[in-house]
Design brief:
Spore Coat Polysaccharide Biosynthesis Protein SpsA, Chain A; 2 domains; 14 helices; about 40% helix
Length: about 270
């Protein structure tokens, strides 16, 4: 058995398994046994795209988004089997990547001997690790209170509620957690994808950062695709195709940009 288990949560408003999600599952399968569940109605044809890289892939509308999908997967697998793994990853498809070597990050964090960790940390509300990618060790997987946490997930409570309480919940149980990239400025780290990739070897770019740059991108939105190609071997056409399918051009992969974006980032156009 693989020493890691990965619970991969999905959501697509058009009920499509996008190419970038297939790539994400493929890369995660190199690290772990991947189980996938989507909040929606995905056809068998769509789910078959993930078959080579997952132990299980299914969907159903449950309106619980990521934590609801992770809860469903936990119930499907069962704690008896989950506790046999050394680590469990929770991940969702709100990220493009990976764009760097994930094994290096796992090796780096293993040396620090954390009970749980994430890639980035968030100071919105109470301090917590961002839940799009988190890792838990076997001690946590065996703890009854951790089992109760997942048993008590209620879809109507919303994603952000559970994300913000998971880190303090585990800390109160005596577990030691931290983030791979420290957030000393207490800012929205994911709004700086090029900075994170260049200086921290951040493996992911948040989908929302590129799909809604007016609100979520603090770097120049232009030519990011070229920079990604320079910093990684990630096929940025997967990003372009996804943004186009969802009507979010955002200037990515093309010289097109809206007047709103140009005005917001006008300082980058001053020569």
């Amino acid at each position: 058995m693989n020493k890691r288990l990965c619970l991969l949560a999905g959501y697509d408003r058009k009920n499509i398994v996008q190419d970038y999600v297939v790539y994400l599952a493929r890369k995660l399968s190199k690290l772990s046994d991947v189980y996938y569940f989507a909040d929606g109605n995905l056809s068998e044809k769509e789910l078959e795209k993930l078959a080579p890289y997952t132990k299980y892939a299914a969907s159903a509308p449950h309106h619980g988004r990521d934590f609801g999908s992770w809860q469903i997967l936990i119930n499907h697998i069962g704690w008896e089997k989950i506790m046999q793994y050394q680590e469990m990853i929770i991940c969702d498809d709100s990220i493009y990547g990976p764009m760097s070597n994930m094994e290096d990050i796992f090796d780096y964090m293993a040396l620090r001997d954390y009970d749980f960790w994430g890639l980035t940390e968030n100071y919105g509300g109470q301090y917590h690790l961002d839940s799009y990618f988190m890792v838990f060790n076997q001690d946590i997987l065996k703890h009854p209170k951790f089992h109760e946490f997942w048993k008590n997930i209620v879809p109507s409570n919303g994603q952000k509620t559970y994300e913000s309480i998971l880190t303090p919940f585990l800390t109160e149980l005596g577990f030691n957690g931290n983030s791979y990239i420290k957030n000393y400025k207490k800012e929205d780290q994911l709004a700086y994808p090029m900075k994170l990739l260049k200086f921290n070897k951040m493996p992911f770019v948040r989908v929302k950062t590129l799909a809604e740059p007016e609100e979520n991108l603090k770097e120049s939105p232009f030519y990011i695709d070229a920079r990604l190609k320079n910093e990684s071997d990630y096929d940025t056409r997967m990003i372009t195709n996804h943004l186009r399918r969802n009507g979010s051009f955002s200037g990515f992969g093309m010289s097109y940009y809206t007047k709103t974006i140009k005005n917001k980032f006008s300082n980058w156009f001053v020569k």
